[in-house]
Amino acid sequence: xxxxxxxxxxxxxxxxxxxxxxxxxxxxxxxxxxxxxxxxxxxxxxxxxxxxxxxxxxxxxxxxxxxxxxxxxxxxxxxxxxxxxxxxxxxxxxxxxxxxxxxxxxxxxxxxxxxxxxxxxxxxxxxxxxxxxxxxxxxxxxxxxxxxxxxxxxxxxxxxxxxxxxxxxxxxxxxxxxxxxxxxxxxxxxxxxxxxxxxxxxxxxxxxxx
Length: 210
What we know:
alpha+beta, 5 strands, 41% helix, globular, Structural Genomics Hypothetical 15.5 Kd Protein In mrcA-pckA Intergenic Region, Chain A, 9 helices, Ribosomal Protein S4 Delta 41, Chain A, domain 1
């Protein structure tokens, strides 16, 4: 499984916004942007960003927020662009329906990287079927469960005790032991994670369609 190995605090500094890649740490004074809100690298005088640069940064923010590689992001964009519906909304819906994102938004993991690892290590089932594919696209009425074994339950229980997740409307907790959640409907633009809801998807469409 390919994964991003760059220092995640440098990623946030490069984009100039908090991408919440480290969970609760991003809310603390230890956040890199709180301590040093400037791009990494040599601090030369920077010129005004071009139209191309503005669109590139929007695309990079969205891609890195969900922890995607470039090929994965392009594949989702191609699927969204073939839809008869609004391309930007379909793209965001696809990203929100990823299994690792659903696991995170149910509060089973502190961030999307941890949720991806939880899935990849076999701690999660979908509709009672074991899966280790973080990019699995969920459908309405799909049920995500933590495996009914002590090690898996303990990992998730510890996270649930430490945080009070803000579960979006398209998801619901259906069982506490073992932890279980359900996608009740298709997510919309309004269900997007509030930490990145100000993303301008039209600029991303313009960049990827050039």
